[in-house]
Every structure is written in structure tokens, then in C-alpha cells.
Structures
1.
Amino acid sequence: MDKLHLDKHISQQFDMDLEQLQTKLLEMGGVVEQQIIDAVKSIENADSQLAEKVIQVEDDVDLREVALDEDCTMVLACRQPTASDLRMVLTVTKMTRDLERMGDEAQKIAKMAISLHNNGAAPGGYEEARHMGALVQQMLRSALDAFARLNVEQALEVARADKQVDREYKSAMREIMTYMMEDPRSISRSMNILWTLRSLERIGDHTRNIAEHIIFLVKGYDVRHQSVADIENKIKGA
Amino acid sequence: MEAVIQKKSEKQGIDEVMPSNEPQDIQVGDKTVGKPFADNPKMAMRNVNVHYGDKQAIFDVNLDIAKNEVIAMIGPSGCGKSTFLRCLNRMNDTIESCRVTGQFILDDQDIYHPKQDIVPLRARVGMVFQKPNPFPKSIYENVAYGPKIHGLASRRVELDEIVEVSLRKAGLWEEVKDRLHSAGTGLSGGQQQRLCIARSIAVSPEVILMDEPCSALDPIATAKIEELIAELKQNFTIAIVTHSMQQAARVSDRTAYFHLGKLIEVNDTKRVFTNPEHDLTEAYITGRFG
């Protein structure tokens, strides 16, 4: 199977059920993406109001997760999906979980922003946070796009981009450790930035998971816990 | 009924009939995709074509059924799956207009060989039908009938034992042991179907063919039959035709998908229901327009 046909069921209601799952997932993805943008912005500007908003949105994300899981349960129970339909339902439940975790990370970043607002700015790391934030946000957008279009190549692109996030995280961490050694009084503020970077790195990992789920959805095989090169070879070989 | 057998099969042994280096994955044009062949076939069918009068029902089907496997045959109505199943113990012989060609090898025996007696063949390849069809006799007689005509028991105690063992294997013994001599037709639908299974296993068959064995049963009786299939697999080779995809997914090791008389795909059941190879299989099992 190279191409997925997610419509054309004899039961049109089944078509609608699956379409609903995709639509709701993309909506949830949009909310989480905005959450990440706002969280990074709240760090940059030490904007505690915006940070509060990010924290509040988390409740909405949680509700969406539960609702989507319920919908998936209903499809499994009522339709007993097989093949691509089954993979779609499984992918939606897995992606929902990753998106919710990303929301949690955005919330953590927002809490760091409030702490920085209250205790004063860190000596550095803002530029890195801004840059990593933009990177993971772009990755998430691209992953959601790949999901909507069932585009394996684009999903692979996202998986590759995660490596860059990891590299940037490591180099930023070294820099922040230098600040901490230079000025031990700044350690707690530097830690806030460090946790922020750590959360962004985790968001990158979850985005990579999403990319892997999309490859499973379209190609039908599990590519978790494999290097990007191995995944590429598998796709080419199949 | 006119069985046209390729001449070479009459002269040659199975080794020549079936090259040992049979291709495991054929994927060309009209050919079946997936794994239609097995390393240890109990039955091997080659170039099977079936006509009803002028109408061709089966087109050039090649398939192995491995020892002790459960193979499920699925496909839309009229796709030829039941016709193919019925060829496996020559049930189609009874249909005047039906013409079967190709090779059907059971172990090393050509079952359509002109000298093949169909009575012992049907003892080796038993069948269970869609609608439970117990004889209008007692439960005991239903099971004892086959062993009697095949001379499998010389004394009453032996026959008693065959009846008990068969009913036990069919999971029916506990329910009927106190009324063995009441009518088989007085049982519930699910019990009748298990009685038919007991009847077919009483003659120690090697292969059991099941043609939609659960479609007239409720979910509980269905679950019992499915449980039974899993147990019977230890001793028998089973081919089952079913309209229930979930049933095929639950009970079988391999699944064969038929479409308009052609065998489209044969693959491990796990593969078929999660990531089928052929578009037509995908369309059918997901309930789409083909």
C-alpha cells in the first residue's frame, strides 16, 4: 500500500468519524503550537501575563486530549477498524499523547518565565531559547502539515530537524554553565533558562515522535527507536 | 463432473509436481501477492480453475495449506472462496455443471486422481457447514455414525470412547453426557454446530474445512467455536471460510483474500489486518468500495 484512502467507506458515517478525528487532532495541534509560541515569547519578554495565559490554556489541551481519546475508543469499539483505518486511530491516540506532553512542557516554560519576571533576568541564554523555540515550533507546524497531507518525506524532514535541536541544546547548556561558574549568584536564574531549553528540547523529541507516528500511519511499519538514516533506508527498501 | 487432471501428476511424485524452490513472494500482475506457499504443506493446490457451465468461478489459483495451520478465506459474496473450499474434499463432484481443473495434493496424493475413492478422502478431509446439520438421530449416533461406516471401532467400548473423546474435543461433552441418547436436533444452534464438529473429528480427519461455521450462531456460541478452533489446531489443519473479518483475524494464522474468482493476496493474518499488501484487500477489509 503506497497510498492511503481514508475516505470512500461504504459507511459514510465511518468516513465522517475518521475525518473528525483528524480535524480535532489538527485543532489540538494548533492550540499547542500557539502555546509554545506564547511560552517562548513570555520568556523573552519576562511577560508574566502571557505566561499565565499559557498555563490556563493547558486545561483546554487536557480536555481535548481526553475528548479525542474518547472518540478513538468509540471508533475502535463500534467500527473495529482494520489496516489503514486502524493505523489512523492508533496514530491519533499516540499523537494526542505527544501533543499533551508538549503542552505540559510549554506550561513548564511559562512557569520559568514567571520566576524570571519575579527574580530578575538571567545573564544569558535568551537568544538560544528564542532560536530553539522557533525551530521546534516550525517542526511542529511541519509535522502537523505532514499529518494532514500524509506526507512521509516531510515527516522525515521533521525527524532530521530534531538532531539540530539536540545540538543547539548541548551548546546552549555549555554556555549557561559558563555563566553559572562566572557568577554563582545567577545560578537560580540561569537554571530557569536551562529548564526552558530542556523543555524545548523535549518538545523537539515529541515532535520527532509525531513524525514517526506519521510514517507508521502511511507506510504501516514501526520506525520508533531507530536512527533517521535507518528509517530512510527502510522506506527506500520497502 | 469432469475432473481434468494434468497428466504428469499421475506419473510423477509430489517432489516433481512441486519444485522445492517455489518462489515465496510472487508479485507480478495478476499473480497472488504475499505468501501463498508454505514450507510444510498439508495440501498443495496448483493452477486451479473452476467452471460452472460456461461461467468461470475460479481463475488459476495456487495455494498451500500448511500442516496444523488455520487458514481463513475471506472475500465478498461470489468471490469463489466457498467454491474453492468445496474443491478441497471434492464436494463439487455433486454439482453437475461444475468442472474442476488443476492439482490438489493432500500429502503426496492427488485427490482428483481417477482412482481416488471419495469416501476415505472425505474422512481425511472433513467439513463443517454454515447451518448445523445434525442427523435426525441421537447425539451418540450422530458422532458414532462416521466411525461405524469407516470401521474405526470393532467393539462397543471402542465406539463409546471415540464418541466421548470427540465430544470432549468439541467442547460439548459436559453439556450432553447425561443425554447422549436424546435427539441431536434438540440441542441449541451452537451445541448442534459443536456436535457437527464432533461428528467430523470422530473419523480422525487430517484437515477440517469450515464453511462459515458461526454465521448462524450467537456471539457466545461463536466464541466457543473459535476457542475450539484454537484447540483443534494442535491436531488438525483447518481451512475456514468466513464473512466475519474479525473472526478471520482472531482465529487464523494466514488469511487468503479472494476477489472475483482470483486469489489476490495471502499473508500472515497479522499483516493482512494491519498493513495489507494489495489495494483490493485493503478496500475489502476496511469496508470501502473496491
2.
Amino acid sequence: MALRRKLVTWLLLGTTGLILAVAALWGEGAAPGKGGRGQAVALVTVEGVITGGTVDLFIAGSSAGSVMEQLRLAREDASIAAVLLRINSPGGSAAASQEIADEVKRVREAGKPVVASLGDAAASGGYWIAAVTDRIVANPATITGSIGVIMETADLRELYDKIGIDFHVFKSGPLKDMGSPARDITPEERDVFQGMVNDIYSQFVQVVAEGRRMTEEEVRRLADGRVFTGRQAVELGLVDDLGNYYEALRILAEMAGLPPQPEVRSMAKPAPWWRHLLTVVSHVVAPWQQSGGAVYRLPVIR
Amino acid sequence: MTGPESVAPIIGKTFDPWEAIGGVLTSPVQTLAAVVAAKPVGMAAGLVFAISAFATFLGLQAGVEDLPVPGFQGGAATLALSILVGMVVLALWFMQAGIGVLLAELLGGVGTSLGLLAALGFAHLPSLVAALVDFLMGMAGLGQGLRGLVAFAALVWVLVLQVHAVRLSYSLSTGKAVAVLVIPLVVAVMLAIAVVIAAGLAVTPLLPQWH
């Protein structure tokens, strides 16, 4: 009897170990149907605020570095036939969006079609990236558009007076402290900032015009910063089709000559397990952290 | 079911954990009586955590493939969620035992809280079997209906073992042991319904009205 019970124990633990190994391999893509075979679709996601560099531990968003790396891997991987770019972003840094868009173009130049599937929102920087893809698929209620550039400075003199802070500035040139929150903005600085915003805006308009095969005049008529629903965007030529993620996948498969339900492989580099635990915290902290602090902000497109 | 007095723990004079794991599945009453007597709480905690984390890991590994969830895919995310679920189930196990002790004593039972805690932990073992069977069925491509049936059978199995655990650790009749396990569930469900109704009443005026 005792032997039988021990036998059951070892049988149970042995099976558990064996299945744990199989499950781990299954998850890592070694099992049949999860990688390694023929023509797959790469899933690259742009989620949250688009930032340059690395995303802060407590800020939920997509860093240009990470998204570009995913696109590069998709471009270089011979088993990847096409790329599905899932965008759910309100925008972010102009330069970061531009970097990602350049990498999307390289994927297309490599002969791999790219379709953008827009989620809740793909506005501003999110739309900048979508505009350079072969086709854009949005939900009827997706918030998109917001073609424009915004830059903000803050005047905190009254606050500094109240708390007794006084600044002494030593600078090499008259514009070295432009945007300082410790004094009012000068007309010259205003011109410089506005010139920067206008220049980035022109680049944005140009990207949309090229991507959507529209004239710059046509884009400028839509590019006053307003947002559109997915359905409005289709009517205006900013989006090609209405549909969800799976519809976008179907369209992409058709474009790439793949079966209707192709293998989809996420290009995201697995984060360490503890990072996922922190994700919960980050979603609580992020809105608070992003709402304050910065008094001089880089040009953003949102 | 027999009364606790008639149950002789069959796992020798010294408690053998390797024998106990198989014993819970093959001769549950005698094995749980031995667990109640030996009170291996540390091992029970390890089992509760490992079984729930492992079952979650298997479930997620089998189902994560088609999830278009940005930033929350792959083995690391699965591992994180599995550990989280393991910790939550560990806390729930501790709470269940605490409430069980209180109710068992209120119903006239006499026993040891650590014995109940350990026995309730060992009663999780059928969940491990269910997780293994479910994963194999999933790999074999069997439908959700049959897999649901296996999950239900495992749930009943765990409940039966829990009744044994309460009965043996506090010398209660089967009816009272069932009451010890069911009363907290009924109270929790009633509380949840009350909270949902209260929250609904509080939030309704704040919701946007579409005309």
C-alpha cells in the first residue's frame, strides 16, 4: 500500500515535470504551429505614448527603440512575409514617431507589406506611423487624425515667488535658456518655437500626403489638429478600410498571398517576469506622473 | 463517510510526504487523517502555491498564442501571472482555514487549526491532476465541453477532500463539515451581490445619459 502511494506520487510529479517542459516549449514557440514554419505574419505593437529611448519603468508606452528593433527583426527574418502593425496610441514624441515610420518604410522596401490596425486611438504620432504603411484598417469608432504639432512652455514665476525661489542664469547666448519657466517668453523665442512647430508640421503633412497619395493642400485642409472617427477618416481618405484586428490580418494575408488565417508571431522581446508585475503598478502611476512635472516639453504630436 | 474516531492514519509513525501526496488521491481519508496529525503546514503551503501557479501556467501557455495583447505576451508574462495567482490562492487558502476554524469551533468541533490548514492544503491536489489532464486534452484537440466536465469533476473532488479535512481535523459530522465550507461561500456571494447593487445605485446617476 505504501509503495503504491509512493508510486502514485512519483507518477504525478514525473508527469507534472514532463508536461511543464512541454508547456514551456509550447510557449516559447518550439511546438508545432508556433514558429519556424514558412510564411508568417509579424505582429508589432505601438501601445501608449510614443517615446524616444527606453520607456521609463513606471510609464506605460512604446519606446522607439523597442518598436524599431521589432520592425528590424521582422524585416530580416526570412520566415516573415508581412507585418501587422497594431497601433493603439494617442501620439507622442515627433522624432520617435519619425524613427519608427522610417523603419516601417524599410520593411516595405524589403518587399514585405505592412498593414496598420488601429485600436482605440491612433492619433497624431500614432497616425504618422500608420500613414506610411501600405494600408490602414480602423474601427468605426477609432479616434484618429489629430495631424498637427504642439509644444508647451510654462510660466512659473508666481509660483517661484510664493515659495521664495530666485534664479540666476549664466548663458552663452541670448536663446540658451529659451523656454525657461522663470521668466516670460520673448518675441524672438516665440518666433523660434513657432518656427520649429511649423517645420515639424510641414514634415508631418508631407508624410501623410506621400503615404495617402494626397496633395499637401488636401492634407492641410484636414490637418488643423482635429481628431476624426474611423468612419469619418475613411470618407476623408485618411483610412482605407473599417474593421478590427482580425479583419486587418485577413487583408494583410490577402495582400501577401498567405492563407486567410496565417501564423502570427509577436516580435515583442519578452520582458522579465517581474516587469509584468510592475505593469499593474505602472498603469496606476502613469497618469499621475505624466500630468505634472515637466515645464519645458519637447515638441510632441498629439 | 466514517467518523474521525474510526480512521487510523495509515502513513506510518513518521509522516512521509512522498507517500502523502499519492495517498491523498488513492486513500484520501486515511491520508488526510495522517496529515491532520502531522500538521505539515510548510509543505501544504508549498503545494497550494505550486499547484495553483502550475495550473495557471499551463492554462495560459495553451491559450496565449492568439491573444493580441500588446506587451503582455510570452513566457515571462505567463510566469508573472502564474506567480501572482499562486500568491492569491495561498492567501485565500489561509483565509479559508481561518474562517473554517472559527465556524468549526462555533459548531462544536474540537481540533487543531494547523491540522485543518495542512489538510485543506493537501486537498488541492486534484487540481494538479485536472490541470495535467486539461493540458493533454487541449493538445489532443478535445472540445471545451469535455474539458469543462473534467474541471467540474476536479472541483467536486477537491470539495469532497475539503469536507474530509474539516471533518477529520475538528471531529465534526459530515453535515457540519459541509456547513463549515458552505457558509462562508454563501456569505461571500450575498456580500458580492450587495456590493454590486450598492455600487450600481451609486454610479448610475454619474453615467452619461444618451438621449
